[in-house]
Amino acid sequence: MASEVNGVDLRVSIGSLKLKNPVMTASGTFGYAREFEPYVNLHRLGAVVVKGISLEPRFGNPPPRIVETSCGMLNAIGLENVGVERFISEKMETLRQVNVPVFVNILGDTLDEYREIASRLAGVEGIAGIEVNISCPNVKKGGVAFGTDPEMAAVVTKAVKENSTVPIMVKLSPNVTDITVIARAVEDAGADAVSLINTLIGLAIDHRSRKPALANVIGGLSGPAIKPVALRMVYQVAQAVSLPVIGVGGIETTEDVLEFMLAGATAVQIGTANFVNPRASEEAVEGLAHYVATERLGSIREMIGGLVLP
Amino acid sequence: MPQFQKKTQIIRIERFASDIVRLTLDSPDIASVARPGQFVMIRTGNGKDPLLRRPFSISQTSNQKHFQILFKVVGRGTLLLSHCREGEFLSVLGPLGSGFTVDCQRMNCLVGGGMGIAPLLFLGKTLSRTCPENSPLVVVGSRTKEELEPLVNDFNEIGLTVHPATDDGSLGHHGLVTDVLKKLDLRGDSEIFVCGPHPMMAAVHFFCEERGYACQVSMETSMACGMGACLGCIVPVKNGAYAHACSDGPVFDSKELLWQVR
């Protein structure tokens, strides 16, 4: 596995895990990675985070599930997924053939479910890390409560950590009063990294029909529209915790990645941009290599937290 | 299946009505591998708003070089696209999805409504080539003669006889395509290929169920990625589950889908 692109050092570490570059793909926007093979050299990415997996398969929400909004989109997919068993037997089977670290995003309605999925995934070959989704706004039970309450967030983190054999990254919800409180709680509970932000809860209405645009009424806002909010939260959390912070939210270009790193992110996840430009993640890797080379940096790590304050 | 993300040049723009546009795009990669029923995702601007690509059925290919899309202006994305000029480039992703499955032994009948006629032209062309002894029947409907006539002419050009219907009676039958379909002399082994507004497709599905005809439908839904990642483009199937229009479809056996009884 090449750790450098054209002799440029893009390596970053998330806990014990070494990534060849800081560009990951965000859960729910990259399928199970194989969907992007016609467009992306998957092995060139830092890591991929696959669609959220629950203990049992889920059909997800009724349509309409997505709607475009200004510079973004709202979604209420409802965590449709194949369930942990089929994920292991089918999806991991093909993912193992791709030379890229795989993070499995997991979600549950109860603490026991989180514990059980983590144990089921423990020791499965080819899994580099777990991303714990405590922040999906679409399921009425569980998700939101875990992500918005520091004590519950800590309990889930601890349960997953105790049952995992790989580094765990906890994905934080922006739909809280103070995200640093949650970040500190999961750090104390043993998380190896935090990723933020998940989607912001939103609503779109069609005034002609007088109906909500989504069948679920509310959904999660993503895309360039949320980037300033994500940057601000990454900046705050990076100062509040000593864990690696993975920046997520409206990242599309190399410049976006650099901005998140300056705000304190060790790595980033590209999400909604994958829908628009399936090559966005690989292009960001190329762009970072070019930047490090032309700016004559020793490594991309020099950018982390390098924000110059007025 | 080969898929491409390409900058493709607009080589021809035709306006069939104030709000209906047909674009001819230059893309040998896509045109040479596309099959009837497949679609492309197109960026309608270069900025962040509108953000998402828009899905369009491939309505025709020519000489393995060019392909066409036909659309009606329904929102901001299609409005922007309607303002494009010849010579400009568009970012196109495709070809995507499954296509129609054809059987030359059957009596084939294409039923299209409005913009749903687009993929059927490609299918009609392919059927006339692959099943030369067995021309498909074509039933198409739209609001007015202005909208429908250019498409009827396209079918005529490839030697197919068309049974048109218009909402205002300005061309062919004054009324619905389903009225026309019901009066056709169809064989028991008929297979109907349908694309159009949802109520029309539902009506055709129930008609086929009743008569025992096979029926393939091409579903249109809103879609963010077109490649099976966003899971936004679902259509309800039996047992409370969903299929994904982009990767499981957009063409389905109508019996697999859950239709609202009207």
How would you describe this structure in keywords?
heterodimer, A: 310 residues, TIM Barrel, eight-stranded parallel beta barrel, four-stranded antiparallel sheet, B: alpha/beta, Elongation Factor Tu (Ef-tu), domain 3, Rossmann fold, 2 domains, seven-stranded antiparallel sheet, 32% strand, globular
Give a written overview of the molecule.
The complex is a heterodimer of chains A (310) and B (262). By secondary structure, chain A is α/β, with parallel strands linked by helices. Chain A has one domain (4-60, 77-200, 221-303): TIM Barrel (Alpha-Beta Barrel). Chain A has helices at residues 83-95, 111-121, 143-148, 150-162, 179-188, 227-240, 254-262, 273-276, 280-294, and strands at 4-5, 8-9, 12-14, 17-19, 23-25, 47-53, 66-69, 72-75, 102-106, 127-133, 168-171, 193-196, 200-203, 205-206, 211-212, 218-222, 245-248, 267-270. In chain A, helix 4 (150-162) packs parallel to helix 5. The longest helix of chain A has 15 residues, at 280-294. The radius of gyration of chain A is 18 Å and the shape is globular. Chain A starts with a strand and ends in a 16-residue tail after the last helix. Chain B has 262 residues and is α/β, with parallel strands linked by helices. Chain B folds into 2 domains: 4-96, Translation factors (Elongation Factor Tu (Ef-tu), domain 3, Beta Barrel); 108-256, Rossmann fold (3-Layer(aba) Sandwich). Chain B is globular and about 50 Å long. Chain B starts with a strand and ends in a 9-residue tail after the last strand.
- What is the CATH fold-level name of chain A? TIM Barrel
Record the strand order, biggest sheet of chain A. 5-6-9-10-11-12-17-18
Instruction: Find the CATH superfamily of chain A.
Output: Aldolase class I
Order of helices and strands of chain B: EEHEEEEHEEHEHEEHEHEEEE
CATH topology of the largest domain in chain B: Rossmann fold
Give the strand tally of chain B. Answer: 16
The percent range for helix content of chain B is: 10-25%
**Which sheet architecture does the biggest sheet of chain B show?**
7 strands, antiparallel
Please list the strands of the largest sheet of chain B in the order they lie side by side. 4-3-7-1-2-6-5
The percent range for helix content of chain A is 25-40%
The computed structural class of chain A is alpha/beta
The overall strand count of chain A is: 18
Instruction: Give the terminus-to-terminus CA distance of chain A.
Output: 41 Å
> What is the structural class of chain B?
alpha/beta
Shape type of chain A: globular
| Largest sheet descriptor of chain A | 8 strands, parallel, barrel
User: What's the architecture of the largest domain in chain B, going by CATH?
Assistant: 3-Layer(aba) Sandwich
Radius of gyration of chain B, in Å, reads 17 Å
Question: Going by CATH, what is the homologous superfamily of the largest domain in chain B?
Answer: Nucleotide-binding domain of ferredoxin-NADP reductase (FNR) module
Average residue-wise pLDDT of chain A: 93
Instruction: Report strand % of chain B.
Output: 25-35%
